[in-house]
Amino acid sequence: MNHPAHKTPLNGLTYEQLVELCHRIGVKPVHAERLLASIFRRYNTDIGAITELPAALRNYLSECTSIFVPECTASQQAADGTQKLLLGMPDGKEVETVLIQGSGRLTQCISTQVGCAVGCTFCLTATAGLTRNLSAAEMVSEVFAGQHISGRKVRNLVLMGMGEPLHNYNAVAQFVRIATDPKGMAFSPNRVTLSTSGLVPAMYRMIDDELPCNLAVSLNATTDAVRERIMPINRKYPIAALMKAVRAYITARGNKRVLIEYVLLAGVNDSADDAVRLCELLDGLDCTVNLLPFNPFPGSDFKRPDDAIVTAFRSALASAGKVVVVRESKGREISAACGQLKTETKQQHLRTGG
Length: 354
Description:
CATH superfamily of the largest domain: Aldolase class I
CATH architecture of the largest domain: Alpha-Beta Barrel
Number of strands: 14
CATH topology of the largest domain: TIM Barrel
CATH class of the largest domain: Alpha Beta
Shape: elongated
Number of domains: 2
């Protein structure tokens, strides 16, 4: 569906904003709730077909608003059911979203930016830099597209796709509130997870705003020297400041468990000493550690550790009483690295003149 620049994207508005819109038009605010139910729970993208709304409201919505559903410009599906989709946004920019099959549930990985400015050296998305932020409506539209293409209801949302969510704080916060509003998309806050590379001031803002979602922190190193090399953001917000923010978040949220993500890079951060230091950093912290053996992509300087190294690292953490899970990348045979489908599609277009 077209998304004219002069029209307000309806699927990016909160309940409170729709109530205000109803007041402005002169209709009862109860219609805001009916509108949300139709858009977010019945996924109705044809405003004119929402017959339970008064004609004055339908006419205004048809003339002044739009509901954007992105075009899927490329897709791949793995043997394990994982689907990776490349979605075209209103200005022609493309982002990736991933549908991950689980036991009785479907998890969707949401992009929050076109590209990324953080510059993590093990991330393919970082090689392209940042083009722009996504709007809340565009993030909602990723969910619309995922559910439409899969034919299943998404149960979990993880903001771990392209981009650093906290670099796009306002739009991401708007999306999280729409996603978790019982009148809106009605996701449980426990089923929405925001992942950050460590933008410390925005983490404290999450605390102050009581943003209704889980927090995941991409740590990936146990010394500042290594983390600065693979994650330049550490030069501004070193490990000590990051872990202080994590502890503040856990305390403020009533000891809510945080997810610590740790990408294992062969010979870089996977030693026995790293395991010991990681246990020390997480001492007394209510967290789950996700170990992610690196998923190589063409041109990368990093390699995946041997399985024995991964097992030894996990065992060291478990022996110290840490809750630790080894997460194998889903869909490893389908351009699974973040940004890889977009990169491959762009290269193919260049080769074919498309």
